[in-house]
Design goal:
This protein has 243 residues and is mainly α. The protein has one domain: Up-down Bundle (Ferritin), CATH 1.20.1260.10. Helices cover 67% and strands 0% of the residues. Helix 2 packs antiparallel against helix 3 and helix 6 runs antiparallel to helix 7. The longest helix has 38 residues. The N terminus is likely disordered.
């Protein structure tokens, strides 16, 4: 059971306030540096593509759709992880959250940099994940998306694994050990929803840099998922079912 924070929650001491304030400043700086690094990577990749005389991918391509939707998907992981830096006192949880923030925000910067340089809009105007049927990947790849229909029916803009508005609000109000469990559960489900998207992008994208980044996402999130499952088990908690 979560431990909500309300207006009647005990007031923490000045030391806690200072630590949490410092965490917020550190989070902002980390995100800013990650965005800058991602944009630089995106720009460098585009210069390489220009040197090879490769035309920008079309608007309805896997490359463009992947960059748009994965930016949104990553954005929620960064949002939840930023909460962990202020709501959690567990060093392992805070370290995981910091890694998620720096890695995924940098990747957002890279993908948004590509979209800018390709002269494509930063976000999709229609339903998400249409690009996953634009090209058929090889039969050897498992690109099934458990819970996809349920997520899309409940909130058309929400992709599989993503937390609902209510779940985010509850997480924001929660602190301590209850926060740690809920954050780990939501992040694990988030990864489980994002990994098939990245697998599809790695297989079906036509731009080598996009395929490479998608492969990195798969490797990182699979490794993090194993670690999160172990952390949940140590806390006596079980993963959430896919939404």
């Amino acid at each position: 059971m979560a431990e909500p924070r309300g207006d009647d929650a005990p007031i923490t001491g000045s030391g806690d306030d200072a630590r949490r304030g410092f965490s917020r400043v550190g989070t902002v700086l980390a995100v800013a540096l990650a965005v800058l690094a991602g944009l630089l990577v995106g720009a460098a990749g585009q210069r390489w593509l220009a040197g090879e005389a490769v035309a920008p991918p079309p608007p309805d391509s896997v490359d463009v759709g992947f960059a748009r939707d994965m930016s949104v998907h990553h954005g929620q992981a960064v949002e939840m992880s930023a909460m962990a830096l202020t709501n959690s006192d567990d060093p392992a949880v805070r370290t995981l959250a910091y890694d998620v923030i720096t890695t995924q925000q940098s990747q957002i910067g890279t993908m948004q940099g590509w979209l800018t340089l390709w002269n494509r809009s930063p976000s999709a105007t229609g339903a998400p994940m249409n690009w996953m049927s634009a090209e058929e990947p090889s039969e050897s790849m498992d690109h099934s998306m458990p819970g996809m229909n349920d997520a899309m029916a409940t909130e058309p803009s929400r992709m599989p694994g993503m937390a609902t508005t209510e779940e985010l609000a509850e997480l924001r109000r929660t602190v301590g050990p209850a926060f740690d469990v809920r954050y780990l559960q939501l992040l694990l489900r988030h990864h489980q929803g994002g990994i098939p998207m990245a697998q599809y992008g790695a297989e079906a994208a036509t731009v080598p840099a996009v395929s490479s980044l998608a492969e990195q996402m798969v490797d990182t999130q699979q490794a993090e998922s194993i670690a999160i499952e172990q952390m949940l088990a140590s806390k006596g908690a079980a993963p959430l079912p896919m939404n």
